[in-house]
Design a protein that fits this description.
Elements (H helix, E strand, L loop, with lengths): L1 H8 L1 H18 L4 H22 L6 H43 L5 H11 L1 H19 L1 H20 L1 H8 L8 H43 L4 H12 L4 H45 L8 H15 L1 H17 L8 H6 L1
Length: 341
């Protein structure tokens, strides 16, 4: 009995139990996972934006926060009111274009190979989930808008009251649940440092990738630019696999509007963009801990998509990196290997 008590007093054991309890709590509120994830993402990104702007613009922090949120809400309102019908229409046309192309018989090796890639279980599932997620989000705009609005409000209050929240939360250090608080603080710091940083990097990379891709697609004369831009942005949030998945519908559209020559132009342009992402953006934005082998990346994406759907594609890698950080797994070579070298 004493041995069992000693076991539970060990920090590692307590940490595992509390971590399992947190997972159980999150699972019990899984119906609210959209709001939870959106609130965290908005809060983290907006807090980083506020800190970045504060260093360069001498404005009172509270006023700056309200101003930034007002700009974002204004842009979203204009976007929904003015561009929502266009976006919904263009995404629907993209789906119809790809579907009709797949239904038509093709007589060349390249297009047949592309059709084979599309029909493969995982790629087809990712594309199906992605397009259905976009269509459902834009058609069921009332539910999506409420979730986004609630998340924005929660993140706004968090950032406005950040110093007061820190002061109030610190009171738990001397409470009866202090051991629980210290473990929550440990996981929270790890989660922010890994999950938050990776999400931030994915957003920046997706934005840059979308801007460059849209400019190239406009030069190449692609139709439904707005719909393609949204597709590229959301797929850009998926590490590594997003580039491959987005290349499939883009190749189909390129072939339908310009044949092989347009496909070659597209491939060269995408390779240049991917090179910028891989050799310039990734090293600057991603820490060494997020430099996963491609095999691990795809395995994580396959499992996370299977269990969590579209959200799994976006948060699968950040969550995996978070778990690696908890387990103290890094890319540093072990001492023994250095000695052998």
């Amino acid at each position: 009995m004493n041995g069992l008590l000693e076991l539970f007093r060990k920090r590692e054991v307590k940490r595992i139990i509390i971590f399992a309890l947190l997972i159980l709590i999150l699972y019990s509120v899984r119906s609210m996972i959209n709001i939870i994830l959106l609130t965290f993402i908005f809060t983290f990104l907006m807090d980083r934006l506020v800190e970045f702007t504060t260093k360069r613009v001498h404005i009172k922090r509270t006023l700056l926060v309200i101003l930034l949120y007002s700009i974002i809400v204004g842009i979203m309102t204009v976007g929904i009111a003015k561009y929502l019908p266009i976006i919904t229409s263009e995404i629907s046309q993209l789906v119809k274009r790809i579907t009709s192309f797949s239904a038509a018989s093709q007589d060349n090796v390249l297009i047949n190979y592309i059709e084979t890639v599309i029909s493969s279980d995982k790629i087809a599932k990712y594309m199906e989930d992605g397009f259905s997620f976009l269509l459902k989000s834009f058609t069921d705009i009332s539910k999506t808008s409420i979730q986004v609005l609630l998340s924005l409000i929660l993140s706004l209050f968090f950032i406005l009251e950040k110093p007061r929240l820190k002061e109030f939360t610190s009171k738990f250090k001397n409470s009866k649940i202090a051991p629980f608080y210290y473990e929550i603080e440990f996981f929270g710091q790890k989660f922010t440092r890994t999950f938050g940083k990776v999400i931030e990097a994915q957003f920046i990379i997706a934005i840059v990738n979308t801007i460059l891709s849209v400019l190239i697609l406009m030069v190449l004369g692609f139709p439904q630019i707005i719909g393609l831009a949204i597709m590229i942005f959301f797929l850009g949030l998926i590490p590594v696999a997003g580039v491959i998945i987005s290349l499939v519908p883009l190749t189909i559209i390129a072939f339908t509007i310009g044949g092989y020559l347009k496909v070659i132009y597209l491939f060269v342009a995408i390779m240049i963009i991917h090179g910028i992402e891989a050799y310039i953006l990734n090293p600057k934005l991603m820490s060494s801990k997020t430099d996963l082998p491609v095999f691990y990346t795809f395995v994580v994406l396959i499992f996370s998509q299977h269990f969590f759907g579209v959200w799994g594609l976006i948060i699968g890698i950040p969550v995996f990196v978070f778990l690696l950080d908890i387990l103290d797994v890094t890319n540093k070579a072990p001492a023994s290997s250095k000695i052998n070298e």
